[in-house]
Give the backbone structure.
Amino acid sequence: MNTSTTDFKARVRVALNDRHLEQALGRARDGFVLKRRKAVDARPDFEALRDQGVAIRDHTLDHLEDYLDQFIQAFEAQGGQVHRAADAEEARRIVLDICAQAGARRVTKGKSMVAEEVGLNEALDDAGYDRVETDLGEYIIQLAHETPSHIIAPAVHKTREQITELFHEHHRKLGFAERVTSIPGLVNEARSVLRERFLTADVGITGANFLVAENGASVIVTNEGNGDLTATLPRVHVSVTGIERVVPTLEDMTNLLRLLGRSATGQVMTSYTTLSTGPRRADDTDGPLAHHVVLVDNGRSGMLADPRYRAMLRCIRCGACLNHCPVYGAIGGHAYGWVYPGPMGSVLTPLTRGLGSAQDLPQACTLNGHCAEVCPVKIPLPELLRGLREYQFEQRVIGRRPRWAVWLWGQVARRPGLYRPVARWSARTLGWLGRGQGVLQRLPMASGWFKGGRYLPVPEGRSFLEMLGGGDTVPSTPLTPTPLPGGERGSGSEAEGSTHDLPSPLGGEGSGMRGTGSTVPEFPRTPTSLPGGERDFESALEQAAGTVEWLDQPDDIPRQLARVMQQQGLDGPVVVAPALAHLDWAGAGLAPRFGPALGDETVGLSQAVCGVAETGTLVLASGADDPTTINFLPEYHFVVLASANVVDRLEDAWMRLRERDKPWPRTVNLITGPSRTADVEQTIQLGAHGPRSLKVFMLS
Amino acid sequence: MTVNSPAQPHVALYATCLMDLYRPNVGFSAIQLLESAGCRVSVPRGQTCCGQPAYNSGDRATARALALRVLKEFEGFDYVVLPSGTCGAMIGAYPELLSDDPELQVRARDLADRTFELTSFLVDVMGVTAVSARLDGVATYHDSCSGLRELGVRDQPRRLLSTVQGLELNEMTDAQVCCGFGGLFSVKYPEISGRMVADKGRRVSESGARFLLGGDLGCLLNIAGRLRHEGSPVRVFHVAEVLAGRADGQAIGEGRA
């Protein structure tokens, strides 16, 4: 992506005058902030999770090459191919070579910020591939010929009306004559248009949120299901990601997952977390024939080697710093000029592309610290930005006027004998200029201030130190015009003892904070309040819009499926995992296909290895009798789960999978509710690309 | 004032630049509050700027030179108290700023440990639980970023304000969101800063409050400048003025009737 980072101020002006943008950003900010707040409050050990997250990321970065080696070995042992790209150009060339070798024509893409970072989209377009963005937000901005304005919600700057017009313009020729204005209507229209493209793609490109060194899994964390369709259906799957994405173990990833969903969208788990480990196995019936991982450096080694900026590599790309940044909230993502906006972008862009083209980014920040407060891995973003400002100051790349202003102020402030008269004179002059008015409506020396739509309050007229007079201390005569109200002192009792009758406006005395983080209660690693058991699984899944029906025995499954289909008026093809083929389907009046899904099915039925009570997550493992496509292509997804296989936490699920007498599966799908998107006006709509509903048949 | 504290500490009042220049009443209010709490108050006359504008502009050398001045001026007091979270947080950054000199760093750490924002000093150190001031009407409180996030100032001003007779606190939405001042940011990026303070002004108005209070003059000048521009009747005071019962004169940015 070649967007310029130089004309920051011009882009800011455009953004501030865009009423659609203001509307969209206001809605997004409130939504993201509230959802995160609720999710974090519901997890009382969140601070401890953050500390563990920091420890995991820092440890990994300290041993990055070791863990990358481990990942590469494990991934290649399972038939995958790893490529390392030193820079953007090399990354583009690697991916183009893979596409060329595959004889590709159509390339589907899941959302990948690294692909944006290395300019892969333009490269694919220039090389003549039919590139299809499949994330709804990315698809919208592809139609608009724009770039993402947010790292997890690329089209957050678009209003529904704008999306309606875009779809009408591009989909008319595909037979969608009507202008669709409702959110479900827009999501459905995109679903129909993109479904055919998923099924006919030759190469699928996704990013990766994590690379697990332990077992060579590349992991994507999504909601729509488009990432899985992109990874599973084409002949070739390419995962493009940064070298810093690696984590040592599944347990480490689990900790980061607990931070990621809550910080990003306020979700306990996103709908889909998928671990892909190499190409289709000998006995698999679906999955790509080749799986490549492209590890992109592009400036990351430099950050790793510089202790001042290394912490930036902890970033797990949740977007919380954007959502809480008041500057981002005012100007949106495009003003930042490159793929990474907001606080994280203001650090990453100069470090990746050089300060020369991004001089404003470290400066355009009030250093209010909101970003660092919400960062799940505690990246000290304001400190990093201040560090960049120091570099800019040393290199004399900031403007002459601010340099001079600061220098002049420094000279005055170093000399009390000068400082006091300057303050005295300024107080008098400004006070005189605005006498009687209280504010100045203009002041030539400080015209910038007034451009912000505000006046400048005027001083009282005399400086404090002048009024105080000479001497080192406060004059013995009280300065107070009125006698001290009730100035009695508590006699000799213990400090901080009598806070009893204080109504706290914030509710509760324990909420007082003193210094950051000092009041966070210590929580045990396994809080007893965490869920466990089938009933907790059920309520957690219901929170994620999934449902559970209890059955006594496996033989009940076909009849119950038939009954539900009848109740809901579902007909059309049914596909069932071969693992469940032995059940009496004919007896229930159903004639399902057994095998992978083809894309035209109304109903799909698969079986889960286990369920996780903590999150309401189903764990499905691919294999000869368990195709992955059933989990994503049918409109209505049903999953069989034995209640004995409900475990408390994700860590327990990993142990179950490790203890099976089979090799680690090619694909592990963690499914927490149906497919969903919030890419149109932050409103959640189920059934984006994957199933519209998810029902669990729980065998007691 | 209801106080609960052992001895009579010697407190140096830090007269921040904006207070010195703009709002001496805040300084006198601070002195009054500290004395009522049982402190002996001094105002070192050689004090100047804490160096925050230089520090945040990347001019480490100037920030360092000013930090050394502050170290010297404020030696020998039990506590240093500021009616500003921003400048307080700057003193908290001195140990990092002087980290290349172990001896200076020890002194900077000692100074930082003795330095407090005014309301947190009154509540957390002096054990003040109530003031005897009166102000009739509804107020809303803006949390200044440095005080809130670097010094943990949030409940203390609210606790004290809740004991001001006649005053009702009504929290505005986004009280903890930056007002857009940011020192030099406000003049370097006035359009962005202006949008941010316009949002803040809207939240203030929505709260229905008659008074906007806060603990940092930078933010208050910014918000008052915006409210006056809008023609808003909301009156802006520093929290110290209200707690000391000295919010009886002109509010910040208010003209003479």
Summary: Chain A touches chain B through 108 residues (CB under 8 Å). Confidence is low (pLDDT under 50) at residues 476-528 of chain A.
